[in-house]
Amino acid sequence: MIAVSNLCKTYASGFRALKSINLDIRRGEIFALLGPNGAGKTTLISCICGIVKITQGEIRVDGHDIVTDFRAARSMIGLVPQELHTNAFETVWAAVSFSRGLFGKAPDPSHIEKVLKDLSLWDKKDNTIVTLSGGMKRRLLIAKALSHEPQVLFLDEPTAGVDVNLRHDMWQLVRGLRESGVTIILTTHYIEEAEEMADRIGVILDGELILVEEKSELMRKLGKKQLTLQLESPLEQVPAALAAYALEMSGDGAQLVYTYDTHGERTGITGLLRDLGTAGIGFKDIHTTQSSLEDIFVSLVGRAK
């Protein structure tokens, strides 16, 4: 649905915001773009949407070049930016209807009504924007982006600063859009959202795309599990006989942590428990934890620096 080839963006100051980005986004997927502040997420989105002029490279949306065929390309895209820039004294209905008209779409009150109802804005349709709460304004941004029935939806930090209920409502809407065939690209600082929602993950750092991977495959390859043993009696040090397990001991010696690969032929847990018994080390409790996408992200960014 979106094809980005050798994309570079250098500002007049000489700052290289994007460096040779190559990215293909599939039709109907949810693609999460992760990266620290200033990594280039918003610049990449702005280039694809035609807001920022590219320095080098090519971007196509469903085959339409964003430069030479910009009207067709732009009409397929809905963008939910981080900030709301509109007439504060305009009504909700007028703002969303105007957004639809900007793309040359004929008036369709039934579609506007559906969008507002889906976003719990119907009872606010005659309110002026200045009277809306922060969460309602965030919903309005999404309504404006959906007004012209786009096939691609960009969500740039869509749930920043909104309450938990609104966040859940938004993600329910996103799932429904994906099921209807809309391609969704999101940036978020709430990595648990990407872990729950995304089909694929991209990580951008200092203007370079350092990783693009299926979420499930990323979790498989980089995720890890840890087995924590609460000992019956504290240890002063890990016995030499257990060195092969690379155990980590807590500061007070009361617990041992064993990290293992769940997808290896053998986890080594059976051997560890046997060797603990042989060494006379008893334990009173045992539990496992698994790496989250946030753990993997922090590890990737730290490794790339």
Task: Describe this structure as you would to a colleague.
The protein has 305 residues and is of the alpha/beta class. It folds into 2 domains: 2-220, P-loop containing nucleotide triphosphate hydrolases (Rossmann fold, 3-Layer(aba) Sandwich); 223-304, Alpha-Beta Plaits (2-Layer Sandwich). It is 33% helix and 27% strand. The protein has helices at residues 41-48, 70-75, 92-102, 109-118, 134-146, 164-179, 191-197, 215-222, 269-278, 293-304, and strands at residues 2-10, 16-25, 30-34, 56-61, 64-65, 77-80, 152-156, 183-187, 200-205, 208-214, 225-231, 248-249, 255-260, 283-290. A 6-stranded mixed β-sheet has the order 6-7-8-3-9-10, with helices on both faces. Strands 2-1-4-5 form a 4-stranded antiparallel β-sheet.
* CATH topology (fold) name of the largest domain: Rossmann fold
Helix content: 25-40%
CATH architecture descriptor name of the largest domain: 3-Layer(aba) Sandwich
- Strand proportion, as a percent range, falls in 25-35%
Low-confidence segments: none
Q: What topology, given as strand order, has the largest sheet?
A: 6-7-8-3-9-10
Q: Sketch the major β-sheet.
A: 6 strands, mixed
| Tally of structural domains | 2
Cα(first) to Cα(last) distance is 31 Å
Please tell me the overall pLDDT: 85
Q: Structural class of the secondary elements?
A: alpha/beta
Count the strands?
14
CATH class of the largest domain: Alpha Beta
Radius of gyration, CA atoms, in whole angstroms: 25 Å
Count of runs of 4 or more consecutive helical residues? 10
CATH homologous superfamily title of the largest domain: P-loop containing nucleotide triphosphate hydrolases
Anisotropy-based shape = elongated
The succession of helices and strands, N to C, reads EEEHEEHEHHHEHEHEEHEEEHEH
